[in-house]
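Hi R.,

Here's the chain you asked about this morning:
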Amino acid sequence: MTIDVRLFHYGVMDEFDAAILSRDQEGAIALLQRLELSKEEAMATVATIFKDPGKCGYTKL
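And here is the predicted structure, written out as tokens:
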């Protein structure tokens, strides 16, 4: 299951987007860990989003 699908399935897509848009790295990582990603996977995912937000669908950070 992709991360987007997990976020949607668990009903936390808006919460994750809010964490990303407010640059709350720790909050975004914690949320991904609740979705059964390891800490390392969650950290890598959030780092990738912050590195190139436009590629991940975020136009403003």
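One quick note: The longest helix spans residues 39-51.

Cheers,
M.
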